[in-house]
Design brief:
alpha+beta, 6-stranded antiparallel beta sheet, 17% strand, globular
Length: 185
């Protein structure tokens, strides 16, 4: 009887897990959305938000890295890859911001953003509502005004945008280096 108690207690505290752990580091969400707004539209919106004052590197799933001034092309690419790696390899805290035009800008602890084009996501809200919890990483708990891991449409769209950042971080493909207007003068 005592042996059974020890085994049960060991299982309870995790000495002998009941199932294999699938945890990976860094943790990533299961959700890999197969839809995104056009890259040119996303970039145009960020250029508007920054008043065309920043150079930007854009990744294939829409993540945008804001660059310091006067970097060479090579230095800009290296900088953007490092920023994305830093977000990915540390905890990717996001701060979703509702813009006046209704879009959502996701900020991170490093100079990168994802712009969620709500006119585009409106066409995909059924899928976003169905899959948004797959946008959480293993053991992640996000506290919202609605409760732990309970999201309104704004929060669901934020998880969608962050899932795109994770996809860019896992397979970083740079598609564009944008130079702001004053950089060309």
């Amino acid at each position: 009887m005592f042996d059974r108690f020890i085994i049960f207690f060991a299982l309870f505290i995790g000495v002998f897990p009941l199932h294999a752990s699938n945890k990976v580091f860094p943790p990533v969400p299961d959700w890999r959305p197969n839809f995104t707004a056009e890259a040119a539209v996303i970039l145009k919106q960020l250029v508007f938000y920054t008043n065309d004052q920043k150079d930007v590197v854009q990744f294939s799933n829409g993540t945008l890295v804001l660059l310091p001034d006067r970097l060479s092309d090579t230095a800009a690419y290296d900088y953007a890859l490092k920023v994305l790696s830093d977000i990915y390899n540390y905890h990717p805290d996001m701060k979703p911001i509702a813009m006046k035009d209704g879009n959502i800008v996701l900020q991170y602890n490093h100079p990168a953003v994802n712009v969620v084009m709500t006119g585009f996501t409106a066409k995909h809200m059924d899928e976003i509502r169905q899959l948004h919890l797959d946008g959480l990483v293993t053991d992640e708990v996000l506290i919202t005004p609605l409760g732990n891991n309970i999201f309104d449409d704004f929060g669901m769209q934020a998880l969608y945008g962050r899932a795109l950042m994770f996809m860019d971080a896992q397979d970083p493909v740079i598609i564009r280096l944008y130079r702001h207007a004053k950089a060309n003068q």
